[in-house]
Amino acid sequence: MRLSVKSIVGFLFILIFFAGYQGGKYFANNRFQEVGLALTFLLFFYGAVFTALTDRTIRWSWWFWSAPLIVGYVMLSSSAAFALNAGVPIMPSLFASREFLILFLAPTLYFLYRLGFAVEDMHRLFVTSLVIIILNYILSYHRVDLEAAYFSTGYMSYLVTYDEWRGYRLKPPTFALIILTCYASIRLFQDGSALRKLLWVVPLLLVGYVWSLIMARSQMATVAMAMLLYPIFLSRPNRANLLVLVVPVGLMLLLAAGSTLVDAFMNAEGADVRAKAYVIAWQTALEHPVIGFGQSSGYSKTYQDVFGPKFFPDDLGIVGTAFKYGFLGVFLYLFANFYVLSRLIKTNWYYRKRHGVHHPLIWSLLMMMTALTLNLILNPGLAYMQGLTTAAFAVGITACLYEDMGLVSRARRVVATTS
User: Fold this and answer.
1) How far apart are the first and last CA of the chain?
2) What is d(CA 314, CA 375) in angstroms, rounded to the nearest whole number?
3) 155 vs 94, more confident
4) How far is CA 60 from the centre of its chain?
5) CA 391, CA 102: separation in Å to the nearest integer?
6) Phi and psi of 21, rounded to 5°?
7) Which of 301, 229, 243, 294 is nearest to 80 (CA)?
8) Can you tell me whether residue 216 is helix, strand or coil?
9) What keyword terms does UniProt attach to this protein (predicted)?
10) Residue 121: φ, ψ to 5°
11) What is the pLDDT of residues 21-34, one digit of tens each?
């Protein structure tokens, strides 16, 4: 790959990562998201065409068709379901589900790797994008009048939250924040040079400042729990066997504490509204068990138009996912979650075995996915833009690393045996 083309592709990757992790949501009503999706398509077709012409060993059909089939099913089924159930046109709902198009990032990364784009270059561009996103958030936090935005009727009102303890807060790019926190932490401890360690203090200070602004205690606790669980269960293959013993015990403890959790939920502020929303979502999911009620759109009808002004399925965890996408959608979500998690775990094991140290980016993505799995019931984050970007990037980068570490691909084995 020529240097000029490589530089252009690298710059486009930064823009895609910036859009995927919602760095552009603080200006222009998040229209930058569409730019990121368009650039993803551009690089996808560029990589697909040139690998088809020059690479005879790649599993081209699999990498080309997997993303369209997955994305097509989710977008078309959820849009058609809402159109039928709410009696509205399908196109607004189809456009409202466009976030799933970012899944084309996974084959895009692999195609470009096969064309000569190095894994370490992808690594550096991704981390650079995270730093830019955090800097952009800090600037936006001090640029936006949070109180005025909270009481406005525009798009920015959805990005500002308020409570008496923490005041007005601008919603952060949570996935980018968590991944960069984990990444800077492991680089600080793993890098040998004092100068390199000092270099990673700067992003740690940036993410520390953001954590102090948002004071998201539950998110910080979940990330800390993921880091504590890693050396016990996920650091080596033999330790993963402990999960066979621990998971059933954990489920029994969860069931035993169920009544306490329900009581706490029902006695919390706004519990009556949430309880009614959960009941509506669950009953609707039972009425539409296969593909759910579907994806709404502000340009046709919203969920609030159909079910009442305080019904927001995105706040209802896995029950909200069942409401929108049906129990088939929940199954696909769980499969995707554990598929991405297992790829990261295996790649981390292989890399440690070969190099004796963690791959900092893979480890950071693994911590993100572990935290997401721990909070699976309450926050199925992979179904939204930042989670979809993380899943697509994880699948793409692990595929590249598998080949980079010499783990022979199926296509190359086939060519070797038939030649």
Assistant:
1) 27
2) 14
3) 94
4) 25
5) 10
6) -95, 20
7) 294
8) coil
9) Membrane, Transmembrane, Transmembrane helix
10) -65, -45
11) 999 999 888 899 99
